[in-house]
Specification:
The structure holds 3 protein chains of 3 kinds. Chain A is of the alpha/beta class. Chain A has a single domain, classed as Rossmann fold, CATH 3.40.50.300. Helices cover about 30% and strands about 25% of the residues of chain A. Chain A is built from 11 helices and 12 strands. Chain A has an 8-stranded mixed sheet with strand order 6-7-8-3-9-10-12-11, sandwiched between helices. Chain A has a 4-stranded antiparallel sheet with strand order 2-1-4-5. Chain B starts with 5 loop residues before the first strand and ends with a helix. Chain B folds into 2 domains: about 190 residues, Rossmann fold; about 90 residues, no CATH class. Chain B is built from 15 helices and 12 strands. Chain B has an 8-stranded mixed sheet, sandwiched between helices. Chain B is of the alpha/beta class. Chain C is mainly α. Chain C has a single domain, classed as MetI-like fold. Chain C is globular, with a radius of gyration of 22 Å. The two termini of chain C are about 25 Å apart. Classes of the chains: A alpha/beta, B alpha/beta, C mainly alpha. Chains A and B meet through helix 5, helix 6, helix 7, helix 8 and helix 9 of A and helix 7, helix 8, helix 9 and helix 11 of B.
């Protein structure tokens, strides 16, 4: 049973300025399922559509972005919620924080810069559940953050007094206050130093292991996925090119793009020459025909230029969209 | 005094910033007693690695003559940078030391065509006398980075990918035929599929054009991939420096060890080890004001002496380590557990 | 023709610009009509006094025996020119001071900003009244334009300076420096394109301010009241107690024209401001 299922989702940005209209095909036919108790990684380069995907999944669709077709369904076992048609009020009251919560890059948008951390906790809990006794509440919060390995004094600090890594961990603590079933983490460690990144991801992983919920982790850093995710999905130019359990995708990647991403990762101790792909990621206002990767693909065939490759299941949990795989060439 | 055989000779340089007003101001030592040299004879890639707040960007500004040290001296080809006064002198210096910046989408004015900067560089440094000559020079430089003037001509920055702009940026830096290219995080904002070609370019420049590269980064994996020597910085101090294989394969300073361990490796088989428990500091400024070794607060091998005075720079083979664990007394105490661990 | 194309685009897609276009065209037509006026504005008692608006005299006639419509064509032309003179002079000063202070910094910045701030804190109206007394008789609308121009730049110079200060910190300025570019050309090529929208926006603002200032001084009788302007129209109407005498059209005509002119300039300002914003420009070239 999937906790979130996305089917054939198409979401475009349509802008018009002084008579020039543009349509950016940011998410173009994406389907996948999130299961309970897993960390699902979404990887891809800048403007591959992963941030747009997150916006649509979290019901945060505002013009010029619009979902044109497909469905996003959240299912907590008791009820099914259509994330594309849910009202903002319903979202705020019943879903956000309680069912689905977010951790973004640079958490300052969640933390109020002029209020102490404990006040931000109070504000959020007050508006969702109400607080009967402030003292009891404070003890609960303290217990919660201590369990996550954070010192109690952070509650009395202002956001600017904390380091970037500590702020990010406070944001995770906030996101897990109501024990949501789904945590969406969008580039949660991108601006952080490696040592701090490790601490933040470790915390996220511990929380997941303990509460057995689902984490959707979006980051462009394949090495992070290797160390954190259970399954990984690779996006290229608005479409999924491959999805598999982490070990499988690193050991036997099938799509030429995935292969390149993995083989080009530099590692300490390895000096063999690594190469880049030719060309640049496509402009999604005018994407290439057929397989969107074909202009950069070292193995492109004639069919890749004309036909969109279908997603095929290679093994039970490994699927890939590539003409080479369908044709049995690999 | 400077040694004439060196391109760059950085001698005991410190930079102190005064933060806040006259009363209650705080002194921040952004760079503390840093020394290193870059040879004139042999082109090399020298990495200055560190996390945010390590002082590596301040150091890069010192090397570009953008900022003068509070104490100590920076020599370029035997001349003290702080003695350059006239525009002509500065211009002849920047002709030889050229920068490549971090954010490709900020490097060039969004309202200007990118080739304008290449033509300007060719004409301003006297590499070309007129636009026609400049076009040849520019095209040659672009060919060196795998592009051509025809591809770049009439393009605005937003019409190019981050990888392309970064290559154009390197081409621009190559036009005055510099001795040194100073690249400040040149690939941190470039997509993974385009990153390696830029990194490879630095290698080619070193081997074929004999241009030395000072590579400033937080990314140890690419640093290992391209550089000859590395210096690891922590809160303004170079804590360990030496040949990159030595330093990154067998780091000796506890901070270098932590840093190396924290780099995620694309090996899902070992993932549980990477996310084992580590401790993080609560706030960032604490370590700046720490007396003695800046790592003392986080170091698993901390001793009393570490909190009392700055550790000395100790030579161990071809590298230097700024750590009390490697003083002669400590080394004489044979079988010292910390030493053993460090050697591993 | 890019200018024509821009005007066409704006007319098509921006309702503010359409309104501004109608208002300012009206003003422009009036200004042009002054060239073929049947009456000399400096001659009085050429038509019957105090007649209300009619087909023959669309805005009626004044107590001084002048046709108000035709007199206003001169007034609008002069007020507009005054605004242009002020704006042109003060823009030049603001750009030079702002760019130099922002880019050069150091002691030059300190000196220029000290002068700048002295102009900001100077009580303008009393000074203008004083100058009005001193220059009485010699104060034609052109001199007034220059005087206002000398006082009209400091706010905008500060604005330009702060813009340049932030541009100076951006990497592309450093790229230009390390391309060996002379500071003068850095200012012209790298910074001016970002500063021009400010200059444009403030030009219109400055014209509004200057025309308004002239009205104030004229109503007080401190400008050259023999030159027709929107301000002097009100001055003469007041002198003859137009409202008390029931000659309301004498007040209504300049007021209406002032409103059309001000609204037109303001709408033009906000529409153009958005159009030449670098971000909009980037969007248009597909960024």
């Amino acid at each position: 049973m999937a906790i979130l299922s996305v089917r054939d989702l198409r979401a475009y940005y349509r802008t018009e300025a002084y008579g020039i209209s543009r349509t950016v095909h940011a998410v173009d036919g994406v389907s996948f399922d999130l299961h309970p108790d897993e960390i699902y990684g979404v990887a891809g380069e800048s403007s591959c559509g992963k941030s747009t995907l997150i916006k649509v999944i979290s019901g945060n669709v505002k013009p010029p972005l619009k979902a044109y077709s497909g469905s996003v369904e959240y299912d907590n076992g008791l009820q099914k919620v259509d994330m594309l048609t849910i009202s903002p009020e319903e979202m705020r009251r019943n879903i956000r924080w309680k069912e689905i919560s977010y951790v973004m890059q640079g958490s300052m948008s969640v933390l109020n810069p002029v209020r102490k951390i404990i006040k931000t906790f109070e504000d959020i809990v007050e508006s969702h559940r109400g607080i009967q006794d402030k003292k009891v509440f404070r003890e609960q919060v303290e217990a919660h953050i201590n369990r996550l390995g954070l010192p109690t004094d952070v509650l009395n600090a202002y956001p600017h007094q904390l380091s970037g890594g500590m702020r990010q961990r406070v944001a995770i603590a906030l996101a897990t206050m109501f024990q949501p079933r789904l945590i969406i983490a969008d580039e949660p460690t991108t601006a952080l130093d490696v040592v701090v990144q490790r601490g933040v991801l470790q915390m996220l992983k511990e929380i997941q292991a303990e509460s057995k919920n689902t984490v959707l982790l979006v980051t462009h850093d394949m090495a992070v996925h290797a160390n954190v995710a259970d399954r990984v999905m690779i996006m290229y130019a608005g479409r999924i090119v491959e999805e598999a359990p982490t070990k499988t995708i690193f050991k036997s990647p099938l799509h030429p793009y995935t292969k390149h991403l993995i083989s080009s990762l530099p590692m300490i101790g390895v000096r063999t020459t690594k190469t880049s792909l030719r060309g640049s990621p496509p402009n999604l206002a005018n994407p290439p025909s057929g397989c969107r990767f074909h202009p950069r693909c070292p193995l492109a065939m004639e069919v890749c230029r004309t036909e969109i490759p279908e997603m095929v299941d290679v093994e039970s949990r490994h699927r890939v969209a590539c003409h080479l795989v369908k044709g049995g060439a690999l | 005094m400077s040694v004439d055989g060196n391109l760059f000779d950085v001698q005991n340089v410190s930079v102190v910033f005064q933060i806040g007003g006259l009363l209650g101001g705080v002194k921040l030592v952004a760079v503390n007693d840093v020394s290193f040299t870059l040879s004139r004879e042999k082109a090399e890639i020298f990495t200055i690695a560190g996390e945010s707040g390590s002082g590596k960007t301040t150091l890069s500004r010192l090397l570009l003559g953008d900022l003068h040290p509070t104490s100590g001296k920076v020599f370029f080809e035997g001349r003290d940078l702080s003695e350059f006064r006239s525009r002509a002198e500065l211009k002849s210096f920047i002709k030889k030391v050229q920068p490549v910046f971090q954010n490709p989408f900020e490097t060039f004015n969004p309202l200007r065509r990118v080739e304008a900067y290449l033509f300007d560089t060719a004409i301003n440094f006297g590499v070309a006398n007129n636009v026609k000559e400049a076009a040849m020079v520019v095209d040659h430089a672009l060919q060196q980075v795998g592009l051509s003037l025809a591809e770049v001509s009439k393009r605005y920055p937003h019409e190019l990918s981050g990888g392309q702009i970064q290559r154009i940026s390197i081409a621009r830096a190559l036009i005055p035929r510099p001795r040194v290219i100073l690249a400040d995080e040149p690939v941190s904002m470039v997509d993974a599929s385009l990153r390696m070609e830029i990194v490879n370019l630095f290698r080619t420049l070193r081997d074929e054009e004999k241009v030395s590269v000072i590579y400033i980064t937080h990314d140890l994996a690419t640093a290992y991939y391209i550089s000859d020597r590395i210096a690891i910085m922590l809160r303004g101090n170079i804590v360990e420096a030496g040949p990159v294989e030595e330093v990154l394969e067998r780091p000796m300073h506890p901070y270098s060890q932590l840093l190396k361990e924290s780099v995620p490796e694309p090996e899902p088989e070992e993932k549980d080890a990477w996310v084992k428990h580590i401790s993080l500091g609560v706030t960032e400024v604490n370590e700046y004001n720490q007396v003695g070794c800046k790592f003392a607060g986080r170091c698993p091998h901390v001793m009393d002496v570490c909190r009392q005075a700055d550790p000395p720079n100790i030579s161990v083979g071809p590298r230097t380590v700024k750590c009390y664990l490697y003083t002669e007394q400590a080394r004489e105490a044979a079988g010292h557990p910390e030493m053993e661990e460090a050697r591993k | 023709m890019t200018i024509l194309r821009i005007i066409r685009d704006l007319l098509k897609y921006d309702s503010r610009f359409r309104l501004a276009f109608i208002f300012l065209s009206t003003i422009l037509i009036m200004m042009l009509l002054s060239l073929v006026s049947p009456y000399n504005p400096n001659k009085t008692f050429v038509v019957a006094m105090d007649t209300p608006p009619s087909l023959e005299h669309p805005f009626g006639t004044s107590s001084r025996g002048q046709d108000i419509f035709w007199w206003m064509t001169f007034a609008v032309r002069n007020s507009f020119l005054l605004g242009m003179v002020t704006a042109a002079l003060s823009r030049v000063i603001a750009i030079i001071v702002g760019l130099i202070a922002g880019y050069e910094g150091g002691w030059l910045d300190k000196v220029l900003m000290a002068i700048n701030d002295s102009f900001v804190v100077m009580p303008l109206l009393p000074i203008l009244i004083l100058l009005g007394f001193l220059l009485r008789g010699k104060m034609n609308f052109f001199t007034l334009g220059l005087i206002l121009g000398v006082f009209g730049w400091p706010w905008d110079a500060r604005l330009i300076r702060s813009q340049v200060l932030s541009l100076k910190e951006r990497a592309f300025t450093r790229t230009a420096v390390y391309s060996g570019t002379h500071p003068f050309w850095i200012t012209i090529h790298e910074h001016l394109p970002f500063v021009l929208p400010i200059v444009f926006a403030t030009t219109i603002n400055n014209m509004l301010w200057s025309i308004g200032m002239e009205v104030t001084l004229s109503v007080l009788g401190l400008s050259d009241v023999s030159t027709p302007t929107i301000g002097t129209a009100l001055f003469w109407a007041n002198q003859h107690g137009a409202l008390v005498a029931g000659v309301w059209w004498w007040i209504a005509a300049p007021t209406l024209i002032a409103i059309i002119l001000f609204l037109g300039l303001y709408l033009l300002f906000s529409s153009i401001n958005e159009y030449i914003d670098p971000r909009t420009r980037l969007r248009l070239i597909g960024g």
